[in-house]
Amino acid sequence: MSGAAFHLPQEVWFQVCLFLSDEEKGNVRSSCKYFKRLIDHPSMWRNSSVVLKKIRSYNSAYWATLRRRKISKVVVHKAGTREWELIATSLPWLRAITIDKFMDVKALGTLQRFKNLNRLVIRSFQCPSGLATVLAPLRQLTHICLCDLHRAPRAELISALSQLTGLTSLFYHEGDKPISSRTLQSMLVCLPNLTELSLKMGAVYGTLPDDYFHLPKTHGDPTSEVAALDTVPNKSISGREDPGQSDRGLTRLELLNYMDPILSPVALEPLCRLQSLTVCYRDRAVEPSRCNLSVIIGPGDLSALGKRTPDLQRLHLDLCSYGRQSGLHELPVLFPKLKTLKLRHWNMTEAEFVGLAQLRHLQQLVVLDAQPGPSPALSSLIQKLQIETDYRVQVIHSLIPRDPTACFCSQY
Length: 412
Fold this sequence. Notes:
Blueprint: H1 10-17, H2 22-29, H3 33-39, E1 49-52, H4 60-69, E2 73-77, H5 81-90, E3 96-100, E4 119-126, H6 131-135, E5 143-150, H7 154-162, E6 169-174, H8 181-189, E7 196-200, E8 252-258, E9 276-281, H9 299-308, E10 314-317, H10 331-334, E11 340-343, H11 350-354, E12 364-367, H12 376-388, E13 394-396
Parallel strand pairs: 1-2, 2-3, 3-4, 4-5, 5-6, 6-7, 7-8, 8-9, 10-11, 11-12, 12-13
Helix pairs in contact: 2-3, 7-8
């Protein structure tokens, strides 16, 4: 490299390297000591995660590199007690840990050594009975995800989760049946800060109660509503103010493996603060006559949404198909200030697709169903749209990498 290049401010090189992939960063890092120091700066890896496999094979230089970069998120595969001890000694400041197929539940007792840990994901494993004992002391957690659990002791896990009173996000994907109404309500009472909830529903005979998501009001003794439930210890909610009078509540709800008619038409009414609702049906084809939830998007719904949110800047419209009266041609009128739009192009007419150019503030268009790549027809539509917008719109149609730290169930 020319010596003159090193006279550029470090801030310039830093911004350039932020656009590189991890592999490209490694190639640049190996070129000289200057770039080795630059690439290893903690700011370069602030939102990055590291996947740890065959942990005993890592040498001291590898752990030293992770320490210099202040890596705060890791994915751990099949680690035993010795591996967890090594992780806790080398990276004690970890904030987020994802565990895949752990070998020994006793080894997870090491989690208590991570004092800054606030996000924990445990996925794809045969659930041992001792897991609840491991989870209960982790009171500092704000996000926990239990994904694809098998043979899990539900009563023990619910009891442990109910003691994590600081949780703001709970992903509970266990079993093939919904949590009972009383058990769910008693757990929610114990989690006053919870704003995000994701549940795996599954098959059920009949319909769940209308008040499935309704928090019981507690007057006088706050344990009176749930004292009879073995799944929730009384001490976990002792002295708490009446949750029925609180202005807190769920803002995001996700229901996976859903089958109608699980919820009644009025089941969501208690969730007055709900901002985001995701329902992933177990069956791909859903007949409108079988759907109790009144959230199937139609032209009238888009029109109503446009009237309520005329200043909307980001819209993710993931409809599996569009009818003749889809209302997509009205998007520029309904949402004139859109900057980011995500949708499927299947069954969109050329006029509807190219007509998106009328969105004067549109900066990014994400085509959700162009995998593994755009067809010749879609490429032609994109070209026409780019010409109409003078190439000001970024069109994304490549596969977005999955978050290695996230739950498998939610990445549908």
